[in-house]
Amino acid sequence: MTTLNRPAPQPRFSVGEYVKESLRPQVGASSHFARPRKGKVVAIYLRRDKRGARRYHFSVIWDGFKSPSEIAQHRLEKLENTRKSS
Fold first, then answer.
1. CA–CA separation, 34 and 16 (whole Å)
2. Cα-based distances in Å from 58 to 20, 28, 32, 81
3. CA 74 – CA 79 distance, rounded (Å)
4. Predicted structure pTM score
Protein backbone atom coordinates (compact mmCIF):
# COMPACT_ATOMS: atom_id res chain seq x y z
CA MET A 1 0.00 0.00 0.00
CA THR A 2 1.40 3.37 -0.95
CA THR A 3 1.34 6.44 1.22
CA LEU A 4 0.24 9.77 -0.20
CA ASN A 5 2.33 12.79 0.66
CA ARG A 6 -0.31 15.41 1.20
CA PRO A 7 0.45 18.98 2.17
CA ALA A 8 -0.35 19.95 5.73
CA PRO A 9 -3.88 21.33 6.12
CA GLN A 10 -4.31 25.01 6.88
CA PRO A 11 -6.69 26.33 9.56
CA ARG A 12 -9.74 28.28 8.34
CA PHE A 13 -9.64 30.68 11.29
CA SER A 14 -6.89 32.49 13.16
CA VAL A 15 -6.51 33.46 16.81
CA GLY A 16 -8.62 36.51 17.65
CA GLU A 17 -11.31 35.95 14.98
CA TYR A 18 -14.97 35.74 15.91
CA VAL A 19 -16.76 32.52 14.93
CA LYS A 20 -20.16 30.96 15.38
CA GLU A 21 -21.20 27.36 15.82
CA SER A 22 -22.78 25.72 12.77
CA LEU A 23 -26.51 25.16 12.96
CA ARG A 24 -27.53 21.60 13.61
CA PRO A 25 -31.04 20.20 13.95
CA GLN A 26 -32.24 19.32 17.43
CA VAL A 27 -33.47 15.78 17.95
CA GLY A 28 -36.83 15.57 19.66
CA ALA A 29 -40.49 16.38 19.29
CA SER A 30 -39.94 19.81 17.78
CA SER A 31 -37.95 20.27 14.60
CA HIS A 32 -36.30 23.62 15.22
CA PHE A 33 -32.71 24.74 15.15
CA ALA A 34 -30.72 25.67 18.23
CA ARG A 35 -29.45 29.23 18.48
CA PRO A 36 -25.78 29.21 17.45
CA ARG A 37 -23.16 30.24 19.98
CA LYS A 38 -20.76 33.05 19.09
CA GLY A 39 -17.26 33.48 20.43
CA LYS A 40 -13.60 34.32 19.94
CA VAL A 41 -10.84 31.88 18.93
CA VAL A 42 -8.07 31.82 21.55
CA ALA A 43 -5.97 28.79 20.48
CA ILE A 44 -5.53 26.36 17.58
CA TYR A 45 -4.63 22.66 17.89
CA LEU A 46 -3.73 20.16 15.17
CA ARG A 47 -4.88 16.70 16.27
CA ARG A 48 -4.97 13.34 14.58
CA ASP A 49 -8.17 11.35 14.45
CA LYS A 50 -8.57 7.57 14.76
CA ARG A 51 -7.45 7.00 11.15
CA GLY A 52 -4.46 9.29 11.49
CA ALA A 53 -5.94 12.18 9.48
CA ARG A 54 -4.95 15.66 10.68
CA ARG A 55 -7.86 17.76 11.97
CA TYR A 56 -7.89 21.27 13.37
CA HIS A 57 -9.56 21.97 16.70
CA PHE A 58 -10.05 25.42 18.17
CA SER A 59 -10.29 26.68 21.71
CA VAL A 60 -13.15 29.18 21.73
CA ILE A 61 -14.40 31.46 24.50
CA TRP A 62 -18.14 31.74 23.86
CA ASP A 63 -19.94 34.98 24.64
CA GLY A 64 -21.26 34.81 28.19
CA PHE A 65 -18.78 32.12 29.31
CA LYS A 66 -15.52 32.52 31.23
CA SER A 67 -13.61 29.38 30.22
CA PRO A 68 -12.81 28.19 26.68
CA SER A 69 -14.12 25.01 25.12
CA GLU A 70 -12.56 22.93 22.37
CA ILE A 71 -14.47 22.44 19.12
CA ALA A 72 -13.63 20.90 15.72
CA GLN A 73 -13.08 23.10 12.67
CA HIS A 74 -15.97 21.57 10.70
CA ARG A 75 -18.41 22.73 13.42
CA LEU A 76 -17.47 26.42 13.06
CA GLU A 77 -18.32 29.21 10.64
CA LYS A 78 -16.77 32.65 10.34
CA LEU A 79 -18.89 35.41 11.82
CA GLU A 80 -19.52 38.01 9.12
CA ASN A 81 -20.17 40.86 11.55
CA THR A 82 -17.15 40.97 13.86
CA ARG A 83 -18.85 43.49 16.14
CA LYS A 84 -20.11 41.91 19.37
CA SER A 85 -23.89 41.90 19.18
CA SER A 86 -26.41 40.09 21.33
1. 25
2. 12, 29, 26, 20
3. 14
4. 0.73
Q: Annotate 40-73 with three-state secondary structure.
A: EEEEEEEEECCCCCEEEEEEEEECCCCCCEEEEH
Give the torsion sign (CA, 68, 45, 18, 71): negative
Question: Given this model, what pLDDT does residue 15 score?
Answer: 93
- What value, to the nearest 5°, has the Cα angle with vertex 62 and ends 28 and 58? 95
| Spatial separation of the C-alpha atoms in residues 75 and 55, rounded to whole Å | 12
Contact 62, 69 (CB under 8 A): yes
Query: What is the per-residue pLDDT for 23?
Result: 75
Which residues 6+ apart lie within 8 Å of 8 measured at CB?
Answer: 54
